[in-house]
Amino acid sequence: MFKRILYFSASMCLVTGTLLAADDPFCGKWKLNLGKSHITGEQMTIKDLGGNKYSISWGETPTTITADGSDQPNRFGNTVSIAPEGATAWKMVVKKDGRVTDSMTHTLSPDGKTQTIKGTNYRPNGDTSDFETHMKRVGRGSGWGGTWESTDVKVSSPEEWEISAYENGGLTFNSAADKEVLSMKFDGKDYEDKGPNVAPGSASSGKRVDAHTLEVTNKVKSEVMDHTKFQVAPDGKTLTLTIHETGQPHAITLVYDKM
After folding, report:
1. Distance of alpha carbon 5 from alpha carbon 3, whole angstroms
2. Domain boundary among 130, 155, 180
3. Final residue of a domain: which of 155, 189, 206?
4. What is the predicted pLDDT for the residue at 20?
5. Is residue 112 assigned to a domain?
6. Is position 88 within any domain?
7. Considering the domain boundaries, does residue 64 fall inside one?
8. N or C: which end of the chain has fewer CB within 10 A?
9. How confident is the model at residue 258 (pLDDT cuts 50, 70, 90)?
10. What value does the mean pLDDT take over residues 72-79?
11. Angstrom distances, CA of residue 254 to CA of 52, 89, 125, 126, 175
12. What is the count of structural domains for the chain?
């Protein structure tokens, strides 16, 4: 679901009082405010398996890839290629159905203590967004191997999405740029996330805590990717997502402004 996202039913009225869809504080268009968000502290672990082969994980089950420039499938329905460019740089390309979704260069500092990732995200609607992430080495390791933690993240085109009412008190989350749509009810059941870049088997379930708070669990093929709390401010002008990703030591916070 969106990092990386209500309603009107009799059962919810018992909890929150009467809430018409038109008055739902979650409904509307939202744009990510990077200045208000806290998106550093995520960790990536790289294990050098020898023979130019590496295991890479962002907390979830790792992906194993040989750094030979060839496209290799991963469990999220994409292909990933890594092409070494000297001893201190990697060119990484991610594709979905043969179409490039992300292209980036990883560069190690001369002392091996930091790593910089610069690249471009290619969205299904034709838009692009440049990104740059700086990471520091955490603990022991050498070369590419070790645990890396993000210290600074920049994005040229922050994401936008729209939330609208869905049947039986649910909500639809729509990202036009990514052509991604999730329509879900808040009954604890899994609802399919759909879109050209969505990993096969992606689904979300959740509950409504009160009129301004949601708790959502996102999965891929039944494996939990994250638990996310959605909270709309009392004035209805900001939406905050607190995301606890599987295997990550720190939560990230995304803050969206109402457009």
Report:
1. 7
2. 155
3. 155
4. 45
5. yes
6. yes
7. yes
8. C
9. very high
10. 90
11. 36, 30, 23, 24, 16
12. 2
209 and 248 inside one domain: yes
**What's the farthest any 2 CA atoms get from each other in the chain?**
63
Tens digit of each residue's pLDDT (9 = 90 or more) over 151-179: 999 999 988 999 999 988 899 999 999 99
Pair 137, 236: CB distance under 8 Å:
no
Q: Residue 22: CB partners within 8 Å, gap ≥ 6?
A: none
What contacts 26, CB < 8 A, 6 or more positions away?
6, 163, 171, 214, 230, 232, 239
Domain with 26, as residue range(s), is 10-33+158-258
Look at the block and give the residue holding tokens 């990933």. 80
The dihedral of CA 96, 105, 245, 70: what is its sign? positive
- Domain check: are 143 and 191 in the same one? no
Q: Cα 177 to the chain's mean position, in Å?
A: 15
> Which token pair is 49?
């398996």
Cα(141)–Cα(112) distance, integer angstroms? 9
- Specify if 91 maps to a domain: yes
Whole-angstrom distance, CA of residue 184 vs CA of residue 170 = 5
Q: What is the CATH number of the domain that holds 186?
A: 2.40.128.20
Question: Model confidence over 90-128: pLDDT tens digits?
Answer: 999 999 999 999 999 999 999 999 999 999 999 999 999
Two tokens, residue 119 = 């690249």
Consecutive H or E run containing 15: helix 10-16
